[in-house]
Design brief:
The chain contains 3 helices and 5 strands. By secondary structure, it is of the alpha+beta class. Strands 1-5-4-2-3 form a 5-stranded antiparallel sheet, with helices on one face.
Amino acid sequence: MARYSAIVGALLALPFPANAASLNTMNEVGIALQACWTPPANSENSSVTLSFSFKRDGTLIGPPKATAIKVSGDDKARQAYVDAATAALRNCLPLSFSPALAQGIPGKVFTLQFNSPKGTAKAVQQ
């Protein structure tokens, strides 16, 4: 099974519009999704990992699932962090995949770890 991964740089400052040029690699997908990520205030040293699959049209197959949550604070703080990560993913969709990427992406399970402070995320196909 091919393994895709994207490590997103901390210097990304401007949003990546979902209607921009087609995305050709999983690295580009990770950058596009990271551009939409804004961690909740006071969430240092927190992370949530979402698991999801794409359709060829750049939308999700079903809702993302939180598979790992590391957030200090109460249940409200945890839920706010998960909600922010889910919103970041949802607000970036649909993504525009190149024909080659769209051919191989449907149904594959990806994980994306959203970390605080802003600037770090890692997307990995399982």
